[in-house]
Design a protein that fits this description.
Blueprint (H helix, E strand, L loop, with lengths): L1 H20 L31 E3 L1 H10 L3 E11 L5 E11 L4 E8 L8 E7 L15
Antiparallel strand pairs: 1-5, 2-3, 3-4, 4-5
């Protein structure tokens, strides 16, 4: 029993040491356009914390290629960090019109060595919305 306990301790020490020795590198992004303002928080809205998949452009585009999505729309957008900081960048919606899948990716104006952008949203069943004319029951 003593031998087993010693062996387990040694194994944990060998495998956990490299993990604990790695230094965390926080990702910080400064807004590139100070003229962009956050939405007014006094409109009865709440902030929903969310997780996004982020990475280099090649890794992000591998996802869109996997679903055979092509660039569909282009815009300038921003993401608000939990601290209220705005991250500005180019937003591209990729679409597979045959299968109705889509991915929205924001590429940051100031990319880091680790991250060029994030997948903001993905979905299925993309289709045009039929808008009812005002004043009708159509």
């Amino acid at each position: 029993m003593k031998y087993t306990l010693t062996l387990l301790t040694l194994v944990f020490a060998l495998f956990l040491s490299p993990v604990l020795a790695q230094e965390a590198t926080p990702f910080t992004q400064k807004p590139t356009n100070p003229k962009v303002e956050a939405p007014d928080i006094n409109l009865g809205l709440v902030k929903l914390p969310s997780m996004m998949d982020c990475g280099k452009r090649e890794a992000l585009e591998n996802i869109t290629n996997r679903y055979e999505e092509v660039p569909f729309t282009l815009s300038n957008g921003f993401i608000m960090t939990p601290g209220g900081q705005l991250v500005v960048g180019q937003t591209i919606m990729y679409l597979n019109p045959e299968h109705g899948t889509y991915t929205i990716i924001q590429y940051f104006a100031e990319a880091s060595e680790i991250v060029d952008g994030c997948i903001v949203h993905t979905g299925v069943n993309f289709q045009p919305m039929q808008i009812k004319p005002k004043g009708t029951n159509l």
